[in-house]
Amino acid sequence: MSSIPRVSPAFILFSLISLSFFASTSFAVELRLDPTKVEGPNACGECHKESVLSWKKTHHASTFKTLPRTKKAKEITKKMGLKRIKSGSDCLTCHFTSAETKQKTKPIAGISCESCHGAGKDWMDLHSDFGGKNITAENETPAHKRQRWEDAEAAGMIRPTDLYAVAQNCYSCHTVPNEKLVNVGGHPAGSKFELVRWSQGELRHNVWYSDENNEAPVERKRLMFILGKALDLEFAYRGLAKATKKANYAVAMAKRAKVASKHLASINKLIAVSELSEIIALNSQIKLKLNNETAYLTAAKKVGKLSQQFAQKYDGSQFAAIDKYLPKSKKYKGKVYHP
């Protein structure tokens, strides 16, 4: 595994994982976030000012204005028989953050804080309550801190410490489980995504605990790199679950699964961990087949569970053998924000 094969570049238009349908919306589409619980990036910026400033310089933010104007997006929209990207289209769940205002649901931002950390209405106040008047993060009791985070997570907050959950959000939009969008709309079946390279570039916003916006420690980057390959396989399975025709979509998803499985096998030869061994064994039993939704989704769930166990069990210190595969800083995607 001397190099990582690239997946076709794309606009990230659609995701069908962890979706909920909201009858109150003004458009008949499924959204990843409940718009009645979305607070918006301005609410986050009241405390996380530097994080939001960093976000505003990313493509995640600029997509709100730039995507509807691109030639490629217009072509896909026309082929899909849609009138507007921001109204009733498959683009909404991944490219935009929608909220309910004046009893109407509409996009309010691009890919924003809550796209990754969960709709904030139920947890935003909880996660910033340090225990009473004149109590700050510096003098909060350890017991209160533990309870605060437990309550916030129970209310839907996805913390950076839950590496699998955060990364799963990435892959749910950087793959496209929508056969029609690919075969009819001409949309690629996935974007050119690698977890370390993308998260440590322009998306890096480690400014709450680090004034310098430092990159992640090498131990965490090892975990992200390995976990990313497992998630590639999981979401290739989720894509294959939707494949009904031998066309661009099915071919692209099958290729993604094949590449991911080879990467995992190469990695596991170096570190030999039980979770990866189980994933590899599971993959060897999967036969590529169209209209095989139940089997693929079952496999995807198993890979997801093992991946989550892997992320929780290890801290990355054991995996120095894979350092030669980690992307170099000059390969990080986009310009890093510095306060």
Protein described:
The protein is mainly alpha-helical. It is built from 15 helices and 2 strands. It has helices at residues 41-45, 49-55, 59-66, 71-79, 92-95, 113-117, 124-127, 142-154, 163-174, 179-183, 195-199, 218-240, 248-271, 274-284, 293-313; strands at 97-101, 104-109. Strand 1 (97-101) and strand 2 form a beta hairpin. The radius of gyration is 20 Å and the shape is globular. The protein starts with 40 loop residues before the first helix and ends in a 26-residue tail after the last helix.
Task: Give a brief outline of the structure.
The chain is built from 15 helices and 2 strands. It has 339 residues and is mainly alpha-helical. Residues 2-28 have low confidence and may be disordered.
**Strand arrangement in the largest pleated sheet:** 1-2
Main sheet? 2 strands, antiparallel
Give the count of helical stretches: 15
**Low-pLDDT residue spans:** 2-28
- Percent in strands: under 5%
**Helix percentage range:** 40-55%
Which outline best applies? globular
Number of strands: 2
> How many domains, as an integer?
1
From the alpha carbons, calculate the radius of gyration and give it in angstroms: 20 Å
Give the termini separation.
37 Å
The helix-strand sequence is HHHHHEEHHHHHHHHHH
What is the SS-derived class? mainly alpha
Integer average pLDDT: 90
Please tag this protein with its features.
mainly alpha; two-stranded antiparallel sheet; 3% strand; disordered N terminus
What does the secondary structure layout of this molecule look like, with pairings?
Blueprint: H1 41-45, H2 49-55, H3 59-66, H4 71-79, H5 92-95, E1 97-101, E2 104-109, H6 113-117, H7 124-127, H8 142-154, H9 163-174, H10 179-183, H11 195-199, H12 218-240, H13 248-271, H14 274-284, H15 293-313
Antiparallel strand pairs: 1-2
Helix pairs in contact: 9-12, 12-13, 12-15, 13-14, 14-15
